[in-house]
Every structure is written in structure tokens, then in C-alpha cells.
């Protein structure tokens, strides 16, 4: 059996890996590689990365705090600087330094753009 | 042993919380407590008007309040 028949059988088309069925397989393979290597980021990696950045911390109560992340720990206890407190989207208070107990935290988000 | 949630890493996921809130984003990773790191996140408050808040960049979502995960989900219909 010549290589051409083999190639057709595998659904690769006459262009080799870069056309038809061969291309799809290549794409799927590459997508899997990209998924696996580009971005596996666990919470602890994330926490190390964001220190010093401006963040939004939302509490279970719905209150929002925006400030620069000074430090945090594995319990999601947070220390912020230059903090603004938003309740229902409205600025309520400003604090130079704020400490938030982690059990209240719903999420911590970095902010590139305002809502 | 790879878990079911591992398969969602890299895809869109829709997260329903205990309260009337849902989060849609791309799953970057998670830990043993199912705290989740997400990207390109939209936050939905489920009210009669269906309020929506869009945030960019990355968030760490506390796993404490998560009720349900929907892989590939788009979120509530609005």
C-alpha cells in the first residue's frame, strides 16, 4: 500500500498535515497544548501576583472596596491602602488603610478598567 | 486522579452562587477548596431587572459561596 493511500485513509487530504482532516487534527492537538501550558493558575499563584496592584474586593454583603493590595493571606484576609468603600455603587467612605477579614470576602479582582 | 473540574480549565464556565448571583468567566485554575481563578468575568445579580456588572482581568472567587458549576455556560438569559 503506498503512502498516498495511507494518507487518504487517515483523512489528511492531499496537502498533508495542513489541509482537510489533517488540519483539524493539528488544530485540536495544538489547542490542547495551548490550554495545558499557557494557563494553569491556582489561587495561590494568583495571590502572589497581585500584591501591589489596584484591586476590587467584594464582600458577601455586596459592599465593594477598591484600593491597592498591600498584602493578604491564605484565609483571604486583606490589607488595602487608599481604600474606597462603595455601597450600591455609591462611594461611601475613604480609608487610608483597611483590613478586611477573609471570611467576608466574596472575590478579589484586579482592575484594568472601571465598570 | 484528574477531576471533572480540571477539564474545564481554559473554557468558559458559569458559576451559580448560594445567593442571587452568578459569575461567568474563563477558568484559569482552582484549588482544593474550589476557590477559582477566572478571567474576563461578568457578574450577574439576579433581580427582576437582571443587573449585570462586567469586570475585566482576573478574579479569585471564594469557593465558600459556590453552589453550582456549569461548564461552557453563558449565564442567565437577559
TrEMBL record, chain A:
It comes from Equus asinus. This is U6 snRNA-associated Sm-like protein LSm6. One of its GO terms (molecular function) is RNA binding. The keyword Nucleus applies. InterPro entries: Lsm6/sSmF (IPR016487), LSM_dom_sf (IPR010920), Sm (IPR047575), Sm_dom_euk/arc (IPR001163). Component of the precatalytic spliceosome (spliceosome B complex). Component of the U4/U6-U5 tri-snRNP complex, a building block of the precatalytic spliceosome (spliceosome B complex). The U4/U6-U5 tri-snRNP complex is composed of the U4, U6 and U5 snRNAs and at least PRPF3, PRPF4, PRPF6, PRPF8, PRPF31, SNRNP200, TXNL4A, SNRNP40, SNRPB, SNRPD1, SNRPD2, SNRPD3, SNRPE, SNRPF, SNRPG, DDX23, CD2BP2, PPIH, SNU13, EFTUD2, SART1 and USP39, plus LSM2, LSM3, LSM4, LSM5, LSM6, LSM7 and LSM8. Residues 42-114 form the Sm domain. Gene3D superfamilies: 2.30.30.100. GO terms for biological process: maturation of SSU-rRNA; mRNA catabolic process; mRNA splicing, via spliceosome; tRNA processing. Plays a role in pre-mRNA splicing as component of the U4/U6-U5 tri-snRNP complex that is involved in spliceosome assembly, and as component of the precatalytic spliceosome (spliceosome B complex). The heptameric LSM2-8 complex binds specifically to the 3'-terminal U-tract of U6 snRNA. Component of LSm protein complexes, which are involved in RNA processing and may function in a chaperone-like manner, facilitating the efficient association of RNA processing factors with their substrates. One of its GO terms (cellular component) is sno(s)RNA-containing ribonucleoprotein complex.
From TrEMBL, chain B:
This is U6 snRNA-associated Sm-like protein LSm5. Residues 1-75 form the Sm domain. Plays a role in U6 snRNP assembly and function. Binds to the 3' end of U6 snRNA. Keywords: Acetylation, mRNA processing, mRNA splicing, Nucleus, Ribonucleoprotein, RNA-binding, Spliceosome. Component of the precatalytic spliceosome (spliceosome B complex). Component of the U4/U6-U5 tri-snRNP complex, a building block of the precatalytic spliceosome (spliceosome B complex). The U4/U6-U5 tri-snRNP complex is composed of the U4, U6 and U5 snRNAs and at least PRPF3, PRPF4, PRPF6, PRPF8, PRPF31, SNRNP200, TXNL4A, SNRNP40, SNRPB, SNRPD1, SNRPD2, SNRPD3, SNRPE, SNRPF, SNRPG, DDX23, CD2BP2, PPIH, SNU13, EFTUD2, SART1 and USP39, plus LSM2, LSM3, LSM4, LSM5, LSM6, LSM7 and LSM8. LSm subunits form a heteromer with a doughnut shape. Belongs to the snRNP Sm proteins family. Its main location: nucleus. InterPro entries: LSm5 (IPR033871), LSM_dom_sf (IPR010920), Sm (IPR047575), Sm_dom_euk/arc (IPR001163). The gene is LSM5. GO terms for cellular component: Lsm1-7-Pat1 complex; spliceosomal complex; U4/U6 x U5 tri-snRNP complex; U6 snRNP. It comes from the Eukaryota. GO terms for biological process: mRNA splicing, via spliceosome. It comes from Equus asinus. It is found in: Nucleus. GO terms for molecular function: RNA binding.
